Amino acid sequence: MGSRATPWGAYKTITDVLRRRIAEGGFPSEARLPSEAALRAEFGVARNTIRRALADLENEGLLVSMPGRGRVVAAAGETRSAPAPAFRRISVELRAAIEGGELHHGDVLPSEATLTERYGVSRWTARQALTELETAGLIETRHGKGRFVK
Questions:
Q1: Structure pTM?
Q2: What is the CA radius of gyration of the chain?
């Protein structure tokens, strides 16, 4: 199946529809959500659009990914701590790669565009993660060349 053009911001509409269905009992507590393929067919959008909508609902604590089961509605009354901001998750993973030796002094870091695609975030969010690492003294920016491990 080829890629489909999806209107900008369509994932927000899908997120709202699914959130409303959960709130109204259309998907009861601990119920399994339809597959990504079924949701793609229902909404007529690309896979990444569905994944973004589902990720937002997971970040809100409404859905839980269960290995072997897919995504299920969080149990009623289940308390969840607020998720870390997306930029923090990215910076923590990159910091671990640097400190763990996966990325060495002088290695180029993924571009903002690459991080945007990999994590399904805005370019501003990716930039914020990289800025956090630069402020911590772990990376440096070489204008016109990219960001590198210090």
A1: 0.49
A2: 18
Q: Interior CA angle at 122 toward 118 and 127, to 5°?
A: 85
Instruction: Please list the residues that pair with 64 across neighbouring strands.
Output: 72
Picking from 59, 60, 115, 117, the residue whose alpha carbon sits closest to that of residue 87 is: 115
Other residues' Cβ atoms within 10 Å of the Cβ of residue 59? 16
Quick one: which of 69, 81, 83 has its CA closest to 31? 69
Cα distances from 89 to residues 28, 84, 93, 122, in angstroms, run 30, 7, 6, 14
Which residues is 65 bridged to in the sheet? 71
Band (pLDDT 50/70/90 cuts) for residue 86 is confident
Q: What single-letter amino acid sits at 69?
A: R
- Cα–Cα distance between 15 and 29 in angstroms, integer? 17
